[in-house]
Structure formats: C-alpha cells, structure tokens
Amino acid sequence: MGFVKDRFKATADQQLLEIKGIIEKHGNTKLEDVTIAQAFQGMRGITGLVTETSLLDSNEGIRFRGFSIPELRDKLPKIENGNEPLPEGLFYLMLVGELPSHEDVEHISATWARRSHVPNHVFDVIEALPVSTHPMTQFCTAVLALQTESKFSKAYSEGISKKEYWDYVYEDTMTLIARLPRVAAYIYRRKYKNSEHIQPDGLLDWSGNFAHMLGFEDEGFKELMRLYLTIHADHEGGNVSAHATHLVGSALSDPYLSFAAGMAGLAGPLHGLANQEVIRWIEELQENLGTQEPSKEQIAEYIKTTLSQGKVVPGYGHAVLRKTDPRFTAQMEFAKTHCPENPTVKTVWNVYDVAPAILEATGKIKNPWPNVDAHSGALLKHYGLVEEDFYTVLFGVSRALGVLASLCWDRALNFPIERPKSVTTEWVKNFIEKQNA
Ligand code: CMX
Prior knowledge:
437 residues, single chain, Citrate Synthase, domain 1, 20 helices, mainly alpha, globular
C-alpha cells in the first residue's frame, strides 16, 4: 500500500471511532428543524450531510480542511519557480487532512502519471459520437466508458467485505483522476483541433501535462491551469455535482458511475455550465455594443435588459455564498498579474463594479455578488482557449479531486445508502390543517 493510502486509512479509522462516539452519545440531538419552504425550495440551508473535505462559510467562502484559498495559494507546494499551488497538494490535503510536503505531492504526481494510460475502447466510444456533441456529453460518456476498469465493481461482484470497500474505491479514484486529463484533452483536440492529438508528457505535473495535451505550452497558461484545477475542486457536499456523486456512490455504484452522475449535474447551466454562459453573455454584450470595452453605463443597461427578459445574469448569485466568491477574487488577482490590459478581463471587472447594486435592487436575489464562474472564461480566452463549450469540462476535471476524495471518505466511514424522506403536497396540506386544528 502506498504511503498516502496508509495515511488516509489511519486518519479515516480515527475519524470513524470519533463518529461512532458522536452518534452513540448525541445521535438524537436535533441539528435544526426543517421548514415547509425548505422542503419545497431546494432544501436550502438544511444541514443533512457530512462532507469532510471542505466547508463553506456564506460570508467568507470555502475552506479546505480549514485553509482558505489565499492560504492554500501560499502554503501548498508549487513547481520550481512557480507561483500557483499544485492541485495534487489540495487532493492530499482533502484526503489526509494535513498539508502535504513536496515529497507527498511528487508521489501523487508520479502515481497519476503512471496510471494515466487510457484504454483504446474509451477513445472508440468518444469517436462514435458526432463531433458536434457537447464536450460535457462526450466527457460523461467517456467516464462511463472508463468504468470497465473499475476495481471496486469487479471486487464487489466477486464478493468482498464491507471493510474493504474503501480500498477499491481509493484505487479507482486514483486511476480515474489520473486518466481524466487525457480524456478531456482528447475531446478538445478531436472537436476543435482536427483530431491532432498530443501524447502526454510523463515528466510534467498533472496540470502542466493537461495544458500540454490540450496544446498550450505557455507557462502562464500552465500556471492558470494549476490555479484553476485547485480552486474548482470542491465546495462542500451539497452542491449538485458533489451531492450527486455522493448520492450515487451511496448505492455502492463504483467511482466511475458516481462521478459520471456528478458530471451530468455539473453540465447544468445553473451549476458548472455557467462558466460557458458567462463568457457568451459578455461576448454578446461586446458584440451588441460594438466595442470590446463597453462603459459601465452601457454594462448597467445590458444587465437590466437581461433581467427584463427573464434571464439570469450568469456568474452572479449563489445558493449559499453571500459575498464575493474568493475563487473569483483569486482569478482576479491572477489576471492583475498576468493580463490586466486584456479588454475582456477589464469588462469582467467593470461588470463586477456595476452588477451587484443592480441585482440587489431587484429585492429578490439573495446574493448579488460574483461566483467562481464570473471570471474564468476571460482568463481562458486570454491564453487562446477560446472554445467556451469546453470550459465546463475543465471544471469537471478539477471537481473530480474533491468529489472523489469525498467518496473515499464516504466508504472509509461506512456511510449508508442515502434515502431522505419525501412527502406530497397533499401531505403538507394535511399537516398544516392538523397543526391549525
Ligand atoms: N440573475 C438573475 N436572477 C437571479 C440571479 C442572477 N444571477 N441569481 C438569482 N436570481 C433569482 C432566482 O432565479 C430566483 O428567482 P425566482 O424567485 O423568480 O425563481 C431569485 O433570484 C432568488 O434566487 P436565490 O435564492 O438568490 O438563488 P438560488 O439559491 O435559487 O440560486 C443560483 C442560486 C446560483 C442558481 C442563482 O443565483 C443563479 O441562477 N445564478 C446564475 C447562474 C450561475 O452563475 N450559476 C453558477 C453558480 C456557481 C456554480 O455552481 O458553479
């Protein structure tokens, strides 16, 4: 067993003991009451899940094992002369619960490079789809095609003890994460670059190699990928992609099936697809106004028009956050260093200056501030990754780190099949009647 796996198992065993004690002593303690509005409206604010990898504070934003994004940018290992964290380090942190050393991160990089070979049938499955197929559909399909490799599924069908589940889920997790950049890059090069595929470079880190296979050798782009793949990795457990992965995994569907479910959720425009929608909205704005750098007044008018058409302003709002998303701020800081003069980047910043007040004035939008998706497209366009249909796939490659680390935890902590209670509107009406009788 590798030392990362050993450390994960030791931490999880300790945690399992603690959880047993908590349930024994406090299992009947109520966390909070559920309101009728919460039952009808997306279960917002109900604490009904335990996810170890990260925790979201509505004002401060995400913390991964207690570390904020600025702290991670400072403390996680980087490549020599690099400034951005290596996502391998974040994965280690989410899995083991402690900051990794350079050696730990190199070990993970090397493990993923070793396991990155994608079986040919997966490429055949992608090739069977029309080239026009949305990249997220191709990505989900490819993840399902990779499922033939599941060690968990095989071991389960041969008969294994519950105590061993975590082991096979861990192995599948490491293999799946290792293969995702190759699969994603293949989809990109097939759809946009005449199927001129680029072989992996096993000497590069996970993000550097991904950038290389996509066809981008610029060191600035590689740094952007390291930051991007770090900050999109996890956002506690209740968001659609994390929750879907966890839910499907709770039926003991293997990590490939569970992750494919999460990715199907990420492909929705109110979740991960928003990064594609944001840049389209900004480019339409630039096109309609005939300028790359519309004034703040023009932007304000455009936002009002979008709202009056009954559409959302993509990249703004959040189900939990109530302040500017620190993942937006991290990208803004990156842009200030690398491309402050880019007109689309400047437009993103001008939208940020005017949108919150307008959204707030509607009186109904609970969070008028930008989320992670408001900035990423402008940065990707700056480096020449201009095909916005592909952006959610990048998000998905990153999201694998969080949701699959969580899946390892779910099985190591023996979490059972998830099955909340649902009721009908008729039931609610009867309940209200009885309360009022
Ligand atoms: N533009 C216009 N209207 C918005 C809005 C926005 N950016 N954000 C919220 N609203 C509207 C909602 O549609 C809702 O309207 P109705 O009452 O008419 O249905 C009302 O404001 C209240 O919504 P809310 O409680 O503030 O927000 P929700 O928790 O229901 O939804 C989210 C959160 C993210 C889906 C929503 O803010 C949104 O649609 N934003 C734009 C899409 C986006 O950027 N999504 C990415 C989120 C981050 C991610 O997961 O990747």
